[in-house]
Automatic annotation (TrEMBL):
Residues 283-351 form the Glucose-1-phosphate adenylyltransferase/Bifunctional protein GlmU-like C-terminal hexapeptide domain. InterPro entries: ADP-Glc_PPase, GlgDAde_trans, GlmU/GlgC-like_hexapep, NTP_transferase_dom, Nucleotide-diphossugar_trans, Trimer_LpxA-like_sf. It comes from the Bacteria. Keywords: Glycogen biosynthesis, Nucleotidyltransferase, Transferase. This is Glucose-1-phosphate adenylyltransferase subunit GlgD.
Length: 368
């Protein structure tokens, strides 16, 4: 059986979630009531039977390292293989690499030493539930040098403007990778490549002074490489802005969409924090809301997402909002179209109202 290892490349991902990424990288942003965005990328790899996963992290990775620890939540705390968190190491005076090729170059030992035959490289901004064994089967059948993963979206949203789009012929070969604003074949920042070819292309890109592996090693060489496309059909969200985070979070309040992303066959794992069940007091009124454990609710909550340990006092009203861990909403406060980061306190009688298209974001540990 062919072995596959994973690399989650955060090097080129911009932290564009405003206040939510003041103190953390985008991959560490909480999502869906109890997860972090990176949980989906790692879970997809472990569910696809990868025994080695590396994370390329360049900046604001303290929160990420605290969350991932040794990888126990994903069964990656192993003697052989496992989870490797690889922050930058620029101690080689002969290193001439640039951009994310610095990460590939400085961690080439991970690629060389893994027993895998193939490498999957993924980002963290595409939330999905994918089986990479299907991608591998497609790759081998087509005889491709590289297989990129895309999804055909029903509707293009603002977050798709900056995403690469694929033009594909009748044989599923990629003929162009561009930013066509009308193209609905959205590249999901995932590709599978032979380990030896990956090493060869890394060295080639560095020798030519390149700075972005996908752009210069794959996109710029479509005429030389056989790059095939694998279509992913399933729940998908691209999160690269506060607006896309807000909208895609609330899509999960739809039971059908929720069950498409979270299913028993391929569960999404995260760091476990045991807490008591949530408590709903007699004055509470909660409708169409995701509520994590450890919450205590006395007020009115509708169409919202509450993370662990949130306290909502009697008379408080929360609508269309995301309330992260350990926030406290005091009596008679009103929140609508608001995102509260962790450990915030909203004082008695305070009103915060954002727009549905542009929610009001409160950074972590702020009292108002």
């Amino acid at each position: 059986m062919d072995r596959v290892a994973g690399i989650i490349n955060l090097d080129h991902e911009q932290d564009m979630l405003d206040e939510l990424t003041y103190f953390r990288c985008g991959a560490a942003v909480p999502f869906a009531g109890r997860y972090r965005m990176i949980d989906f990328a790692i879970s997809n790899m472990t569910n696809s039977r990868f025994d080695s996963v590396a994370v390329f992290a360049r900046r604001k990775y303290r929160s990420l390292m605290d969350h991932l620890e040794q990888g126990k939540a994903w069964d990656l705390d192993r003697k052989r293989g496992g989870l490797f968190i690889l922050p930058p190491d620029w101690n080689d005076p002969t290193d001439i690499s640039q951009g994310d090729l610095q990460h590939f170059h400085n961690n080439i030992d991970f690629i060389n030493r893994t027993l895998a035959d193939y490498i999957v490289v993924s980002g963290s901004q595409n939330i999905c539930n994918i089986d990479y064994q299907n991608v591998l089967a497609d790759h081998k059948e087509s005889g491709a040098d590289v297989t990129v993963v895309y999804t055909k979206v029903d509707e293009l949203y603002p977050e798709h403007q900056s995403a690469h789009k694929l033009e594909i012929d009748e044989n599923h070969r990629v003929t162009s990778i561009n930013n066509d604003l009308k193209n609905k074949n959205v590249y999901m920042d995932m590709y599978l490549i032979d380990k030896n070819l990956l090493h060869e292309l890394i060295e080639q890109c560095i020798a030519h002074g390149c700075s972005h592996f996908f752009q210069d090693g794959i996109k710029a060489q479509l005429d030389r490489l056989k790059v095939n496309a694998h279509e992913y059909v399933g729940a998908h969200a691209l999160i690269n802005s506060v607006e896309s985070y807000h909208r895609n979070s609330f899509n999960l309040l739809n039971e059908t969409e929720h069950d498409r992303l979270f299913n028993d066959d391929n569960p999404i794992y995260t760091k476990v924090k045991n807490e008591a069940p949530s408590k709903y007091l007699s004055s509470s009124n909660v409708t169409n809301t995701l509520v994590a454990n450890g919450c205590e609710i006395e007020g009115h909550v509708e169409d919202s997402i509450l993370f662990r340990g949130v306290k909502v006092a009697e008379g408080a009203v929360i609508k269309n909002s995301i309330i992260m861990q350990r926030c406290e909403i005091e009596s008679d406060a009103v929140l609508e179209n608001v995102i509260l980061d962790k450990d915030c306190t909203i004082s008695k009688g305070r009103t915060l109202i954002g727009a549905l298209e542009k929610p009001y974001v409160v950074p972590k540990r702020k009292s108002m």
